[in-house]
Design brief:
2 domains, 4-stranded antiparallel beta sheet, about 30% helix, 23 strands
């Protein structure tokens, strides 16, 4: 049998299909109205569902990625004077320096990463740091960043006449350049934490070299700087007195780590924290940095759950005993009693509103849960302390209830002065401690002194009995400056004047070692010896409180040494996204 022409077959089929359409319409017309309505609804639902399914299928093959666009306004408290890596001292100055300048290395959420340098090496003896600069790194004015700029920045800081806050980090360092893109930084002795200094912003030599050293603090380049950072100053707004009150920044498209996604941002200055916090609550600004705990309420986590960050800082606060000036503290049972009676969580709640972490040793942690876990039973602790003192011959005075001891022809009275700075946080901490100790029969007098006077008249000459104060450490804690016996006198920072030959050896080993495991082992051994002697009572590690912009994504704040480092990864922050086709496996 012969088959029909295929084209004839198809054509016949199509004619049959189209001939059915009038019949369908006639059937639909004969349906009652309710059935027509139901039919239309069913058809509509099917069509809408089909569209949704097609959209979802399409989205499953699309990836959302950051794209250019967006900005935010951040409030900070204080004034800006030196947007200059060599002179920056205030939090506002440091914030703007981090945004405008770039260093050989840059702080990030994962530690330090190369920035202007694409690689570096440390010699086996730990004395020479060699950096290879990126050949495509430029300043905001298009000038290439070279080794001469690096050398100029360091040598400028080393000039005592400038009085740079960075001087202490670079005082005895020498710099050698090799060609345009290689820098050798040479230390007089090995110092493992020195690498952190490489985040120093590099200043353009061609801008600053013609300015006399005495004129540098007064240069307009301190307010309108040229750096190589992710953002550059676009406009400075001033009040009627000519004082800057806001800085408008635009992104630097040639930033060496990649063009920032955000196109601009504004740093808005406030006179005090109350004004700044009110502006944030009213949404006049998008974010707010460096807030004091006393401004916050218990509901802050509920009100701003997605934007509030409390990041542990590498700082420690402690009570340092001056055994040379106060013989009371030479007695081990006295130091042990004070330790037993101190509820660190109570101090944190009273002084910091709960935003801190208890510490029992000199080394803070970079990442910890902020939930306090140290258990404290005052009745049990008081009983232990009383038993300890009784065993050593102490008795409570019948006159005022203060503990006393007669030993070796000397009468000891459990009473001392607690000196501290007259800042709200430290005064509250001192009052919390005094209240705890007084309840047991220890007579404590608080001496709150202006911060500058405390440094000059109390700490430097070691003129105190007990001192409540804080220490700032970096990512790699260097305990040498705070506890080595060579640092007992000014300008050393061993304010407790702790002396131990074995402890000195451990601190020297930790400072010299380039191996992090060996450093940790040496520090751990030191902590064990420290716990035996108790030359100080460690209390807490504070946190940096930050309200991040609500609409900005990819903000990671897990590791900060100072508040300004929150901007370390700002070139990766974004608010706008787009979708692109992702790869589909066959």
């Amino acid at each position: 049998m012969r088959l029909k022409d295929p084209h004839h077959f198809v054509g016949h089929d199509m004619r049959a299909h189209w001939s059915e359409r009038p019949r369908i319409r006639r059937v639909f017309k004969r349906l009652p109205s309710p059935y027509k309505t139901i039919g239309l609804i069913v058809v509509s639902v099917v069509l809408v569902s089909a569209v949704v399914l097609i959209q979802r299928a399409s989205f499953s093959f699309l990836a959302e990625i950051p794209t250019s666009g967006g900005s935010f306004t951040e409030g900070v408290v204080g004034s800006a004077r030196f947007i200059n890596p060599a002179l920056a001292l205030s939090p506002v100055d440091k914030d703007l320096v981090t945004l405008v300048y770039a260093g050989l290395l840059r702080p990030s959420s994962n530690g330090l990463r190369p920035a202007l340098a694409d690689s570096y090496a440390i010699s086996e003896d730990g004395l020479t740091y060699s950096f290879s600069l990126r050949s495509d790194a430029t300043f905001h004015d298009g000038t290439q960043v070279t080794a001469e700029d690096v050398a100029f920045t360091i040598e400028l800081i080393q000039q005592e006449q400038l009085k740079s806050p960075q001087f202490v980090h670079w005082e005895d360092v020498s710099v050698e350049i090799e060609g345009m893109h290689t820098v050798h930084i040479i230390l007089p002795e090995a110092y493992a934490p020195f690498i952190e200094n490489m985040t120093l912003g590099i200043m353009p030599r061609h801008i600053w070299e013609g300015i006399d050293i005495d004129a540098i603090p007064f240069s307009d380049h301190n307010i309108n700087p040229i750096g190589a950072g992710p953002f550059k100053i676009d406009r400075v707004r001033r009040d009627q007195g000519g004082i800057p009150h806001s800085f408008e920044l635009e992104r630097f498209d040639q930033f060496i780590l990649g063009r920032p996604f955000l196109t601009s941002l504004t740093i808005q200055l406030f006179r005090n924290e109350e004004e700044a916090f009110a502006a944030y609550q009213s949404r006049l600004i998008d974010s707010l940095g460096s807030i004091s705990p006393e401004l916050l309420t218990d509901s802050v986590d509920t009100l701003f759950p997605d934007t509030f960050h409390a990041i542990p800082l590498p700082r420690t606060f402690a009570v340092f005993y001056n055994q040379n000036r106060m013989p009371l503290f030479t007695r081990s049972e006295v130091r042990e009693t004070v330790e037993l009676l101190t509820d660190r969580n109570e101090v944190i709640n009273d002084a910091l509103g709960g935003y801190g972490h208890p510490l029992t040793d000199p080394i803070p942690q970079n990442e910890r849960s902020l939930e306090t876990t140290e258990s404290f039973d005052r009745d049990v602790r008081s009983a232990e302390a009383e038993e300890l003192l009784n065993q050593r011959g102490w008795e409570r005075s019948e006159e005022d209830g203060v503990w006393e001891l007669v030993a070796d022809d000397t009468t000891y009275r459990f009473a001392f002065e607690l000196s501290t700075a007259n800042t709200p946080e430290l005064v509250r901490a001192a009052e919390s401690l005094a209240q705890q100790w007084r309840a047991f029969g220890i007579d404590v007098t608080i001496v709150a002194v202006d911060t500058h006077e405390l440094a000059q008249s109390v700490i430097r000459p070691r003129r105190f009995e007990a001192l409540l104060f804080g220490s700032i450490l970096g990512r790699e804690p260097d305990l040498y400056a705070f506890w080595h016996s060579s640092q007992r006198t000014d300008p050393g920072l061993n304010v407790a004047q702790f002396t131990s030959i074995s402890a000195d050896a451990l601190l020297e080993q930790a400072r010299r070692s380039a191996d992090s495991i060996q450093r940790n082992e040496a520090h751990q051994a030191f902590i064990e010896e420290f716990a035996e002697e108790r030359p100080a009572l460690f209390l807490y590690q504070p946190t940096y409180l930050y309200f991040a912009p609500r609409h900005i994504r990819n903000i990671s704040l897990t590791q900060l040494t100072e508040g300004n480092e929150r901007f370390g990864d700002i070139h990766t922050w974004y608010s706008q996204t787009r979708r692109i086709w992702s790869g589909v496996n066959d």
